[in-house]
Amino acid sequence: MSVAAAAAAGLLVLSGCSPAASGGDSNSEYGFTPAEQVKDSEITVWVDASREPAVTAFEKKYPDIKIKYETYDGSAGGSGSFQSKITLMDQAGEGWPDVVFSTQQNDAIWASKQTTNGEQGFAAPLNKGFLDQDFLDGFAQGSLDYATIDGTTYALRNDLAQTVFYYNQTLLDQFGYEVPTTWEEYGELGDKLAAEHPGYILGSMGDSFMTYVYYGGSESPVFQSPESGVFHSDTADKNSEGISKIIDGMLANGTLVQDSFFSADFAAKYADKLVGVPGPVWYTGAIFQGGLKTPAGQIGVAPALKWDGGEVAAGNVGGGEWYASSHSKNLDAVKTFLEFVTSADEFQVDASSGYPAYTAAASKWLDKQAEAKYFVNDDFTTVMTDAATQIWDGWNVTSWSPETAWAKIVIPGIAAGKTVESLLPEWQKELENEATVNGYTVK
């Protein structure tokens, strides 16, 4: 089932959240009550470091629009910094930014709600007259579902984050190995690689988003919200235990490391040692072309790993979303900015590291990779495109991030020498505790 189909079936928690609407005036031209507009006033944009090129490209294209930007962590790792900052501004009744980029997909749940004092939610509805429907229709099917609540869309997806399997064809040829197609083969390749070529690796467990890659991508029912306000986690499921055993074996033999992909010395240690890795399509620019600086003609892209006898089920690892403030005093400039950063070639094709959510930009981004002959296999475009329709719907969006429990329990546990399998009960308990704190009923 696709993400879009899951949303229609009510399997995405967003579809049943029923928060108070952002807009206080359904009769306004935008579906919310705009602030008094100040023509040509400066807009403030919050971005993470990876989205700074979006602002630079916008300034070049629209030099007459006054804009300033502030860099923050983008709520990476489920830090919640976006929400905490806006909460303080809601309390003060002033100071809101005009546009915010968040790496998380769950912020619409809180950003669409009225505040406790009755102030309309921070996130402006985008499909009630503010943005043209023709423009919104240009996004990949299902890509706006996570930010759509009861038919109202509150954010625009920046890029898709479906998982695939990246492999270094040069190293595979040198070692005489084949590309794995299943999780079982991935674990077996780890054993073989460790025995025959110690020091070479097949990935890292040092980042909190690995929960999406390995557990979402292995159809492990660890993070589910089958209906509104309900949370379910089953780390004792056969898939949850199966992928944990594979991870533990590869951590033990050294083919999975504990270094973050974004640590200062990862590239120095592993640039020429990474034989293959499951991961989202944004690894193309962020990891291979960026941090590792792997030259063209070495890396290939294969379908996401599956279980033996099963079907491909891709994980979904972020992607990020752009929010417009309902408090902005220059909505014309905000509209221009949102449309530019999500669809314009100057950013999404020329400067973005990931696979754009806007379909026309995605086609050009793929063409750019093909023209550069970066990947060794000509069918990488088909692999990436297919993966976008293969995302497993067994993980749901909630008002908190699954990354926080992973970062609190699993990453330090691994560092202390514990196995992931032994940490599963504690991980599940922490997930359930977070669900309870956020007002969900655990079943």
Describe, in short, the structure shown:
It holds the Pfam family SBP_bac_1. The chain is α/β, with parallel strands linked by helices and 443 residues long.
Structural class: alpha/beta
Helix content: 25-40%
Major β-sheet, in short? 5 strands, mixed
Mean pLDDT: 91
Order the strands across the largest sheet as they lie in space: 2-1-3-12-6
Shape: globular
Radius of gyration from the alpha-carbon trace, in angstroms: 22 Å
Distance between the termini: 23 Å
Number of helices: 17
* Beta strand %: 5-15%
> How many strand segments?
14
Low-pLDDT parts are 1-24
Pfam families: SBP_bac_1
Organism: Leifsonia stereocauli
Signal peptide: 1-20
Protein name: Extracellular solute-binding protein
Describe the structure.
There is one protein chain. α7 packs parallel to α9 (238-253). With 443 residues, the protein is α/β, with parallel strands linked by helices. 49% of the residues are buried. A five-stranded mixed β-sheet has the order 2-1-3-12-6, with helices on one face. The chain contains 17 helices and 14 strands.
Label this structure with key terms:
5-stranded mixed beta sheet; 3-stranded antiparallel beta sheet; disordered N terminus; globular
Task: Give the SSE layout.
Layout: H1 3-8, E1 43-47, H2 52-61, E2 67-71, H3 81-92, E3 99-102, H4 108-111, H5 133-136, E4 148-149, E5 152-153, E6 156-157, E7 159-160, E8 163-168, H6 169-175, H7 183-196, H8 210-216, E9 230-231, H9 238-253, H10 266-270, E10 276-280, H11 283-291, E11 299-302, E12 321-324, H12 331-343, H13 345-349, E13 355-356, H14 359-371, H15 380-388, H16 403-415, H17 420-437, E14 441-442
Parallel strand pairs: 1-2, 1-3, 9-14
Antiparallel strand pairs: 3-12, 4-5, 6-12, 7-13, 8-10, 8-11
